[in-house]
């Protein structure tokens, strides 16, 4: 008896407990058939297998199956309508983007013209301010000289 109050050892005889492995059972240690791995007495057999890197470099063969139209799910109802609306919106956006490039070119030309006009106006305003300052200085000099 052990410390838990149970008997130790097998309940039945060892030969009666072991069942014979089926002939289709392959041992994972020696790779032979007819016995379990824990019963194996042979040496471990080395099998060369490809590394994970080699497996990942190997392309995956994809099988593409064409499904006839009659077997494809037929879309009906609200969800199908929403999906169709979204697809239509995407198509419209794509068509807008292609036409938008010419519009963007025209807009950028107009913007450049407006920016240049504003620069010219600012330059003219600066010149006018300078002229007014020169007049004020000249007038003040005249007054100072007359005193």
From TrEMBL:
Pfam families in alphabetical order: zf-CCHC_3 (PF13917)
InterPro entries for this protein: ZCCHC10, Znf_CCHC_sf
GO-annotated molecular function: nucleic acid binding; zinc ion binding
Positions of the UniProt region annotated as Disordered: 1-23, 82-105
Record's protein name: Zinc knuckle-domain-containing protein
Organism of this sequence: Linnemannia exigua
